[in-house]
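WARN retry 2 of 3 for item q-0093 after timeout on previous attempt; input resubmitted unchanged.
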Amino acid sequence: MADQNKVKELFHSTGELLYRLELKCGLPHGLEETWAQPGILTQRAHFHEGQLHGSYESWWSNGKPKERGAYASGRKVGVYFWYDTSGNVLSQHDFGVA
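OK item q-0093 returned
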C-alpha cells in the first residue's frame, strides 16, 4: 500500500499561506506551520504518526518567542521555556526525558 503522504494547506483570501500540515495515512506526520497573518509565522511543530514529536516553537505576532521546547510521543520533554511579549523568559520547566 502507498504511504498516502499529503499536505494540507489553508490560504488567506490574498493567496498567502496561513497553515501547512504534512500528513501520512491521514495522520499528522512531519512539519506543521501556522501564520497569524500573511508572512508572520506563529507556530512550528513536528509530528510523528499523529503525535507531537520533536521541536516545538511558537512566536507572538511581533515575532518574539512565545514558547520553545520539545516533545516525544506527545509529551513535553527536556527544558521547556515560556516567554513574555518582549521575548524575556517568564518561566521554564524541565520535563525530563521520555
